[in-house]
Structure formats: C-alpha cells, structure tokens
Amino acid sequence: MAKKVLLFADVGIDDTIALIYGYLSRKVDLVGVVADYGNVPRQMGLRNITYLINLFNISNQTKVILGAEKPMTGEDPIFYPEIHGKYGLGYIKPPDLPEGGFTENFYEVVNLINQYAGEIIIVNTGRLTSLANMYILFNDLMKKVKEVYVMGGAFWVPGNVTPVSEANIHGDPIAANIVFRYARNLTIIPLNVTERAIVTPQMVDYIQSKGRAKIIKPLLDFYYEFYKKRNPSIKGSPVHDALTLMATINPSIFSYQSLPVHVSTNGTVTKGQTIADIRPYATFNHEESKHRIAFDFDYQAFYHDFMSVMTGELI
Length: 315
Known about the structure:
- Keywords: Glycosidase, Hydrolase.
- Its EC number is 3.2.2.-.
- Pfam families: IU_nuc_hydro.
- The chain has helices at residues 13-24, 42-55, 81-84, 108-115, 129-137, 167-171, 173-182, 191-194, 201-210, 216-230, 240-247, 299-311, and strands spanning 3-9, 28-35, 63-66, 121-124, 147-151, 186-189, 198-199, 237-238, 254-259, 261-263, 274-276, 291-297.
- By secondary structure, it is an alpha/beta fold.
- The chain has one domain (3-311): Ribonucleoside hydrolase-like (Inosine-uridine Nucleoside N-ribohydrolase, Chain A), CATH 3.90.245.10.
- The strands form three sheets. The protein has an eight-stranded mixed β-sheet with strand order 3-2-1-4-5-6-12-9, with helices on both faces. A two-stranded antiparallel ribbon has the order 7-8.
- The longest helix is centred in the C-terminal third of the chain and has 15 residues, at 216-230.
C-alpha cells in the first residue's frame, strides 16, 4: 500500500526531481504539496508545482497549499538563481499562473493530517518555517503524524552555505530549532548522505530516453553545470530531496544514529549549524528528543530504486 506523504517544498530543481520521483513511484501517494519560499520565492514555487501537476496530469487528489513566504528570523530570504535558474526550473520557463491565482489555504494541512491521522508522513525538503508553525499552532494535532523526514543539516561534513551550515537549516534556524525540539518520530537526512546521491549525465540521458520522467534532462543538465563549476571533479548532480523522499519507503538503505540535535541561531559562520550531541556520558531530560540521523547509505540500492522508478523498468 502506498504511503501517504505530505511534502513541504521550496520547488527548485532538486525538489522538482523529488516531486517527479514521488509522482512516478507506486509506493508513494502524494496527498499534498506545501509551496514554501527557499530556493525560489513562494509564488514561483507555486507556479512550478502547478506546471508539474499539469505536465504529469496529476489528479486533483494532490492538494496544493500555500506555505510560508519569509523565515522566523525576520530577515528577507535569499534566493539562488545561479543554482536553480531564474524561474527555479533550470532552463525551463513555466507558464504563468491562471488569473486570480491561489488564496491562502494553509489550514488544508490540518485537514490532511486529520483525514490521514496515524498514517500521514511529512517530508520537508525546504526551509522549516511552515512545519515549525504547525508545531507552534497545532502541537497536539502533530501527534497524529506518523513520521517526519527533514532534508537538512551537516554533521562533521562541510556545509553548503557556510563551512558548517546547510541551506535549509541556515535559511531559518529558529524554525529548525522548533521542529527539532517538538517533533517525534523525526528522521534527518543531512548532507552527510545527500551529497553522495549522485545522478550522472549518463543516468539522466537514459532516463530521458524512456520518456517517463519528463523534463529531467534540462533540469539536471542545468544543475550539473552549477555543481561542476563549484567542484570540477564531481561526477553528476546530487539529488538531496529525492533521496529524502526515498527514505520514507526504503529506510533500510541507510545507517542511522539517534542523537539529540541543537541548531545555532546566530553567528556569521555558525548560523544554522546542526550540532549532534555524541557524548556517551551525557544525561538528557525527558523532554529532550533524540532524532534518527542518516550518516551513511547504500548507493547501489539508491541507484536501482531511482532508475527503476524514473524509467519504469526493473533495473
């Protein structure tokens, strides 16, 4: 039976790959997508989600929900067109939204959690602002969520915004602290594993030749160009968000540790740093959560699952 997934996403290239993976996987039922700011402004993320729903002829059962526009820090968000393209989809310019647009409908998250109480899984692949608001406003309701998966953080590996900070956490460290404080059954999929979830140009060409995962080539060709400029030795594009969604249905491909996690909320370099407490002698109060953190994964298992879903073939 397919798992009910509610995705919180700032829909740039990587989130789009995750959306395509989720739409094509028979093991995932995407019941809703929350459009957040992050890689792109919220309105652009909404535009990209709408484009993908129309492109893949997704049923009306996938609700599109407006999320946060700004972080809890009160700062203006920084966007990354050099990574994701002017419109968030690399070389692609999606059509404008219909006249009239969307109205604020964030309460739909509450309705979905109630509708799928005890089975819904939340996957957060962008900034954590909207998800943190759920814990602030509806903390008891969040106990009905089966599991929460967050793409974010960097533990003893380099960050991608500062030397120690990953973009999703750095973009709103206050929200990240709230989620890590209150969430239960939380799994963190950090850069430790996602930066190694590489899709090579040869993989992209083969997927594109099968015609199932539409637009994957212009997306990942653009993404790869950015990563090659930053690291000439890289062999392909890391699909951080698709790996996080994959973790909901293939947890066995990862190895984990359960540890308390704290987030630094200030400092030029340390803002957004995720700190896992590995002291074996430390004692924690009963309110302090330990979260499952992925530190390694089986690349071959990732390769077979990703390629099989994206091509429709058993690889």
